[in-house]
Every structure is written in structure tokens, then in C-alpha cells.
Specification:
Helix content: over 70%
Structural class: mainly alpha
Order of helices and strands: HH
Distance between the termini: 17 Å
Number of strands: 0
Number of helices: 2
Shape: elongated
Length: 67
């Protein structure tokens, strides 16, 4: 069975790393770079919201998700 949880965490962490690399550059960022950063950050926010919503639906009583 595919572990979507592992895939989600992998992508989320790699996107965070990419954002940090772009933001830490000493180069002048263009409007396009800022749009790309905003898109990556918004994707993370939306994915996190979706993940939390799915967890709440799957475990409405707050069961331990790690078990």
C-alpha cells in the first residue's frame, strides 16, 4: 500500500527547503521569483489544511494517529 503520509511529509519538507534556498539567496529576486515563492507557500498551506481535515474526519474522537 502506498504511504501517502510519507509522500506528503517528503514533499512538504522538500518544498520548505526550496523556499529557504530561494529566500536566502543574495541575488535580487524578480517578480516571477516572488510569485513562485507565494505559490509554493500557498500549496503548503492548502495541503496542510487538507491533511488536517482528512485526519479529523478519519479520527473524529482524536485517536492517536500514530498507532
Amino acid at each position: 500500500m502506498v504511504s501517502y503520509k510519507k509522500l506528503y511529509h517528503k514533499l512538504f519538507n522538500d518544498i520548505t527547503d526550496a523556499i529557504e534556498i530561494i529566500e536566502s539567496t543574495n541575488d535580487i529576486l524578480s517578480h516571477t521569483h516572488f510569485k513562485a515563492l507565494d505559490k509554493l507557500k500557498q500549496a503548503q498551506i492548502e495541503a496542510e489544511d487538507m491533511y488536517l481535515d482528512m485526519c479529523e474526519k478519519a479520527y473524529p474522537n482524536g485517536e492517536d494517529l500514530e498507532k
